[in-house]
Amino acid sequence: MPGGIGERGAPALMAKDNQDVTRRKFLTESSEIGLGSVLTASLGAAQQTRGDERTGRPTPQPSAGNSKKQMPMRKLGGTGVEVSILGVGGGGRGRNPQIRGTSERPEIREKAEQILHRALDLGINYIDTCAGYGASESIIGDVVAARRKEMFLATKCDKCHVSGDQLRRELEQSLKRLQTEQIDLWQIHNIATLQQVETIFKKDRAIEVFQKAKEQGAVRFIGITVHTSRKVIEEVLSRCKDSGIEMDTLLMTFNVADQASGGHGKQILNGHRSIGKIAMKVFASDGAAIIHQQKFSAETALRYVLSHGFATAIVGTHTLEELEENVRIVRDFQVCSKEELGEIEQQVVRTNGRPLWTLTRR
Question: What's 114's domain CATH number?
Answer without folding.
Answer: 3.20.20.100
